[in-house]
Every structure is written in structure tokens, then in C-alpha cells.
Amino acid sequence: MAASTVDLPARGSFPEVKLAKKAPKKADALLVVAFKGEEGLELPASSLLGGSATRALYESLTAVGATGKANEVTRVPAPAKAGVASVIAVGLGDADELDDETMRRAAGTAARALKGVGTVATSLGDFGLAAAVEGIILGGYNHRGIRSSELADKEAPATVVFADDKSKAKEFEAAKIGAESVLLARDLVNTPSNFLYPESYAEFLRAQGEEVGLDVEILDEKELKKQGFGGILSVGQGSARPPRLVRLTWAPRKAKRSVALVGKGITFDTGGISLKPGSGMWDMISDMGGSAAMAASIIAAAKLELPVKVTATLPLAENMPSGSATRPGDVITHYGGKTSEVLNTDAEGRLVLADAIARASEDNPDYLLETATLTGAQMVALGDRTAGIMGSDELRDHLAELGRSVGENAWAMPLLEEHDEQLKSGNADMRNIHVKREGGMEFAGTYLKQFVGEGIEWAHIDIAGPSMNGGSAWGYTPKQATGVPVRTIIAALTEISQQKKKK
Ligand code: BES
Ligand code: MN
Ligand code: ZN
């Protein structure tokens, strides 16, 4: 059965976070920090526990071997008169080396131990409020999947109360909005493709977008044809589920700059006629991760009321093999008129992105940021936790740095001059592959560059690896969808919104 057109079948659960002037009287547990000093465990003083309770806690923790090393989670019965049943201590390592990422990872690791605990009062915020809030929400996320039975009560997400004064409310709220946006992207990516296909995905984005005050425009297959979106149509034509182009716009009055966001939205990638091997093909439910990240980011921009104009252009299509599918050797005409020879139908992401980038460029934005699960070559080059960023020199380098600063690892990659030659086709303006293994990520970057409008600062972020975590949960990164690079994009939009004068 198909899902309703608007609801996702399953949203993941996650801890509720609250900011309160005082710790709640009726908490079930305390979550405190521990450091690793030269002589072992160190417990900083906190408003949650008095001096004698802290000393008693120290005894309990050392008795069970706690050292305070980063990401160590230790749960012990609470000292008498603490007013709670248990205390959970999370290690932050060396106090002198504490940074945001250490806090996020430790808070995320702790969050996984909080399921079923109830209400938890924490002093984590004293050592980095925004990072702690992000870590708790991101690490405590639990994707239930689609199951016939409800989760048992003991797995219910905790409520985590940060005791801090009102002056921190804005920082707290922004961190919460950012982290919850990451979860939206994760939910979309984790949703199977029989539920999330171009039409249902577009309608979901319409509902979500309108709710936060975005303008929403959806082009269906007829409109796509009328306007000449040959790349999107070509990739979608093998599927019984027709493609869509979603345009979301956040246009606040005070905006001085404009940013175009573009994200790959292949709701399932079989490879098409250039069919992928069956083993592991199921991971291709995540091939819309770029579009999910950009949708989540523009929704965050609206919730944060960032004074920057943002337009997200999201091409959605399902890449299937069938009697109506595109053949290797076909030549297609993109939005704007450029043509591509499709030598490999599995290099489909760039075909839909070409149309979307050309359309987004028409608005003449100051910046064009695009992200996609584009190439297996990205993982060969950089592994599965580090995104590859290509594009205009300065923006590329800055985004890579920004990504690293928020804990979404990224590395600047060059575009290669030899690829200009290898792009040439005997039958069209260009071909979609260079028929080589070497430099596959960079070739895709050069291909996309052909569609970026003159004078627009642009960046392409290949997230084939980092969008999904095939291993077990670590830090604040759960199994499966990670929501990368939502926090990088929000950070970039925030920075751009603060730029004053026109260049
Ligand atoms: N969606 C894939 C890339 C991908 C692979 C993402 C694995 C995440 C995990 C993309 O559409 C693709 O198939 N790329 C081809 C390009 C090739 C045919 C030039 C690839 O990387 O093999
Ligand atoms: Mn593909
Ligand atoms: Zn793909």
C-alpha cells in the first residue's frame, strides 16, 4: 500500500530538551560531566549536586572504574538526598582540550543511554550549551522503521532539562531548531522508496514548507516537459512514478543576499538500464539525501528567521529500468538547452542536477550551494565520513572549513583540467561519464560546472559516503541516515545572512 501523500510512515523518536531556570524537583536521573585529569577522574562542581553529594558520587564512580575519558558513560545509584534514583556521568576527557565536537559526541553517546530513563536534569550545558543540546538530540535519535508493534515503554525517549538562565534562550532555541532539522533529513532518507517517491515526497515538502512560511512550487511531469527539463524527465521516464521539481523559497524582507540551494533527489537509484548489482542496492533509498538536506536547511532558515533569501531547487526522480527508460547512447536536452550524451544511465544524479542548477542560476543568486550522493568515487577518495567539496576556490575552501568546524567533516577537492577534454562527446555538447575510474568524483564536478551561471559563486558537496552510516552508532551519529550536511548549510546560511554590504 502506498502511504498517504503527506505523512511519512515513521518519524524517528528523539529526546525532548528543555531550558529551565532551575533543575526540576522531580527528575528521575542526573546527567553530569566528568573529566580525565592527571590523577584520574575529576568531577567539576555543579549546581545539581552539593559538595558532599559530589564527593559521594566521586566515590561511587571511581569504585566502578570511571576515568572521565571522552565518551565514557557510567551510571550509578545516586548519593543519598540527591533526590533522584541514579546519576549518569559522561566523560569529556581532558578539561583543557574541551571543544564543541568533543561535547557533541559525548552528549550523543550519553543520549543513547537515556532511553527509558524519564526526566533527566543535566549540567552538560555549563560546558557548551549549544553543542550539548545538539549532541543530545542528534545522538538520542531513534529511527523505528515501519513495524507492526509499538516500541516498548522502556525505550521511550527521555526529557532532558538544561538548567540555565534566560539569557541563553536564543542559543538554546537555535541549537534545537538546527538539530531537529537534521532529524527531518534523516527521517526522509530512512524512509523506504515505496513510501517516498517523487509525488509523495513533493507533497510532503509542500506541507512542511507551507507550515513554516515558505513559498512552494511543484512542477509535475507535464510542466517539466513544457519547460524543457530534459534531464529530470530522462532519468524519471523509466519509472511508473513520474518525476517532480520542487522549488521552496524563503524571502524575508530584510534579506541582503540570496542563496540557491540544490539537492539531488533520486528517490531510488537502480542504475536504470546500466543496472547496479543487486547486493547492496537497498542502500539506494538514500539517493535523495542531498535534496532532504537542502529541504531541511531551508526549513531551518525559515524557523530561525534568517535574513537571507533562500531558494531550494530539488529535482525528484526514480531511476528505474523499463521499456520506457533512457538507453545508453541517448542524447538529452537539459533545461536551458545544453545537451548530454548519456553513456551510463547510472550517472543519473548529474543529469537531474544539471537541469536544477541551470534553473537555479536563472535567479542569479549570490551563492549556489549544491549537495548530492553523487559518486562511489567520493568514498574511494575520502572514505565514508568526509564529504568532497568542489567549486569556486574561495567558497569551496571556506565551506570545507565550516563543515569541519561543525563536525561534518569535509575536504576541498580540485577540478581537473584534463576533464575539460574528457567531457567532449561526438554526439552532444558533453557526455555524462569519462569512461575511466580515475577521478570520478572530480569529473562529476566538472560536468556540473557547465550548468552554473556566469559569475555565481558555487560549491558542489559530494556526500555519497557521509550521508549514510553503514556501521554502528558512534558519538551523535546513528546507524543509517546521518543528516549530513544540514549543519554545514545552516552555518553557511547564517554567515551569509550576516554579510552587510553587496560585493
Ligand atoms: N547514487 C550513486 C552514487 C552512490 C554510490 C551513492 C554509492 C552512495 C553510495 C550514483 O548515482 C552512481 O551510481 N554513480 C556512479 C557514477 C558512474 C556510473 C560514473 C558511480 O559512482 O558508480
Ligand atoms: Mn546512479
Ligand atoms: Zn544516484
From TrEMBL:
Pfam families: Peptidase_M17, Peptidase_M17_N
Keywords on record: Aminopeptidase, Cytoplasm, Hydrolase, Manganese, Metal-binding, Protease
Chain positions recorded as Mn(2+) 2 binding sites: K264, D269, D287, E348
GO biological process, one term: proteolysis
Reaction(s) the record says it catalyses: Release of an N-terminal amino acid, Xaa-|-Yaa-, in which Xaa is preferably Leu, but may be other amino acids including Pro although not Arg or Lys, and Yaa may be Pro. Amino acid amides and methyl esters are also readily hydrolyzed, but rates on arylamides are exceedingly low; Release of an N-terminal amino acid, preferentially leucine, but not glutamic or aspartic acids
Name assigned to this protein: Probable cytosol aminopeptidase
GO molecular function annotation: manganese ion binding; metalloaminopeptidase activity
Native species: Corynebacterium camporealensis
One CC-aspect GO term: cytoplasm
Keyword Protease on entry: yes
Main function: Presumably involved in the processing and regular turnover of intracellular proteins. Catalyzes the removal of unsubstituted N-terminal amino acids from various peptides.
